[in-house]
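Student: I would love a firmer grasp of how sequence relates to backbone shape in proteins. Thank you; the sequence and its tokens follow:
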Amino acid sequence: MSDEIPAGIAMEPIFVVEATYSPDAAETRPRHRPTHLARIAALRAAGVVLEAGAFPDLSSSLLLVRAADADAALAIARDDVYLREGVWVEVRVRPFVRVARPDEIPGSADHPPGAAARS
């Protein structure tokens, strides 16, 4: 068995941010949701957030983010209106390695710096 990565596949180190909703999130989230979603959309357009979403039971949200380190990934969540306004009550960050195409990874030979992220 080989550890070689096949051609056309790249491994990108990123971070998973999991944010736990407050028990009253169903009531508090709607008034802050437009601001939250607009920020997530802007971070996606900038290539910082790769994916984001919530579990339907409002237990938690997951964000897949590009960041220099775990503290930078945590700062992305700390700057969100949901955490500032108590919609999220706890945030955890874990390193993660995602399978991607080389052209999806900023700074790779197939995706020079400054090129827009495609996903």
Q: What stands out?
A: The chain has one domain: 15-104. Helices lie at 25-45, 70-78, 81-84. The CA atoms of residues 36 and 81 lie 6 Å apart.
